[in-house]
Amino acid sequence: MEEIRIGIVGLGRLGRIHAENIALNIPGVSLTAACSVVKEELDYAREILGVEETYISYEDMVNSPNIDAVCIVSPSGFHTEQIRLAMKNNLHVFCEKPIGLEIEDIEKTVEIIDSYPGLVFQLGFMRRYDESYRYAKEMVDSGQLGDLTVIRCYGIDPSSGLESFVKFAGASNSGGLFADMAIHDIDLVRWFTNKEVKRVWALGKNAAYPELDKVNELETGAAMMQLEDKTMALLVSGRNATHGYHVETEIIGTKGMLRIGAAPEKNLVTIYDGNGVTRPTSQHFPERFREAFYNEMGEFASCIQENRNPNVSAYDGLQGTRVAEALQHSIDIQDIVDLHPVSSLK
Ligand code: NAI
């Protein structure tokens, strides 16, 4: 197949990473168009990445005859509408997580995605493309850990970003701690177990910045979840890791257990000095998941070239957001929440 021409919407924190991978690193694709509401970002796309077409209107971009696919990295509230518009213009879609913020709207979008079986849709659950998570997944699937009993997930952002989060909290709708951050861990739980979440209980505390209470945002949330086969999952999501970017997963089975990212190591260096023996830590998601972002975009390109579906679907996005919504509801009503059995959408 000829080179896949991609248009990207969003060139912010993550958009820039995807844009550089598409433009400079991944074979068989080109970054032909870019859309952003920030002029400097479009200048960067043109001047540094050599993007031929730049847009401030997404609708104009998807009408361009010169693109085959879009990469959606805009704020989460735009995702569903931008997915639908792309599909209606016969474009393959890679979309960042979460797929959307409202269940009904996501359901409608999944139906539209399903009605274009010839187009590839992939959601940005990049941890599925991280080398360590893939290694662990193979161990679990081959039965090396036996039957799974417990999964424990930590996803804690560095406290260096907390001050700006507090400042802008309420200004942009990310969907809250569970829909925005815990969604990765929810997806891992579903992916590792191949089971759906049945019942959840979530709690939260704003210890570092109690003023977050006023804008209904959480600094740290914890949850206990029961899956349909009684496997237990424990989640901690937060924004205040003083040592860096802490993403850790533990899986306990009847024959053994494993941990991924028990310490968020930046590299293989160990320092011996007046502070004792220390390991440098990863400080942000672009550093920790650099290869995963590259791998997932490579997979998107391969799926288009080979006319097959990626491992992560729109349905995974829908289910993840359903669980995230149940966790938020549990916080709101201060009680256990049962998830309704899954609808026929699949
Ligand atoms: P950001 O705020 O840094 O950047 C947003 C970008 O969208 C900017 O380029 C802005 O110009 C553009 N934009 C905003 N409104 C627009 C509109 N109406 N039309 C066209 N462009 C528009 O956002 P960030 O942090 O890069 O997040 C973007 C998405 O990526 C979010 O959905 C977020 O959940 C997801 N994300 C996923 C991560 C992961 O671990 N997979 C990590 C960080 C973000």
Q: Can you offer a commentary on this structure?
A:
The strands form 3 sheets. The chain has a 7-stranded mixed β-sheet. The chain is built from 11 helices and 15 strands. The mean pLDDT is 95. It has helices at residues 15-25, 39-47, 58-62, 79-88, 103-114, 131-141, 162-168, 176-193, 285-288, 290-306, 314-333; strands at residues 4-9, 29-35, 53-55, 69-72, 92-95, 121-123, 148-158, 197-205, 220-227, 232-241, 246-253, 257-260, 271-273, 276-278, 337-338. It has 346 residues and is α/β, with parallel strands linked by helices. Residues 9-15, 35-38, 41, 58, 73-76, 78, 96-97, 124, 126, 180, 285 line the site of 1,4-dihydronicotinamide adenine dinucleotide (NAI).
- Element-level helix/strand string: EHEHEHEHEHEHEHHEEEEEEEHHHE
Mean pLDDT: 95
Low-confidence stretches: none
* Total of DSSP H or I helical runs spanning 4+ residues: 11
- What best-fitting shape do the alpha-carbon axes yield? globular
Largest sheet: 7 strands, mixed
Proportion in β-strands: 15-25%
How does CATH name the architecture of the largest domain? 2-Layer Sandwich
Summarize this structure as a short list of keywords or feature phrases.
Dihydrodipicolinate Reductase, domain 2, single chain, 346 residues, globular, Rossmann fold, binds 1,4-dihydronicotinamide adenine dinucleotide, seven-stranded mixed β-sheet, 15 strands, alpha/beta, 2 domains, six-stranded parallel β-sheet, 25% strand
